[in-house]
Specification:
105 residues, mainly alpha, 1 helix, single chain, rod-shaped
């Protein structure tokens, strides 16, 4: 059987181990909490950067689309003008051909 002194030392060692374990658990819990907060901040910052980049890309895409639309409209207007000029000259030719046939007819 163990002496009272030995039992007291074992009991004291067990208490010290329990306290050390509790302290280690508290430190670990604090570290987990801090890590979770840091991760949440990183996610928030990443989302903010992504939203900012998306806004920038959308603005750039809109500007490019507007430029393409202007170019297309200009090109279409130029084609219409060219077609009107050709149609006008053909109309004049057709009128002359009709007059010629009537006169020579």
């Amino acid at each position: 059987m163990l002496s009272k002194d030995a039992v007291d030392r074992v009991t004291a060692a067990e208490e010290a181990a329990k306290k050390a374990r509790a302290a280690a658990q508290a430190v670990a819990a604090e570290q987990v909490s801090a890590s979770e907060k840091a991760a949440e901040e990183a996610v928030r910052a990443g989302i903010a950067r992504a939203e900012e980049e998306l806004t920038h890309l959308m603005r750039a895409a809109d500007e490019k689309a507007e430029g393409v639309a202007r170019d297309l409209a200009d090109n279409t207007a130029n084609r219409q003008a060219a077609m009107r000029v050709r149609a006008g000259s053909r109309l004049d030719q057709a009128a002359m051909l009709i007059v010629e046939r009537i006169v020579n007819g």
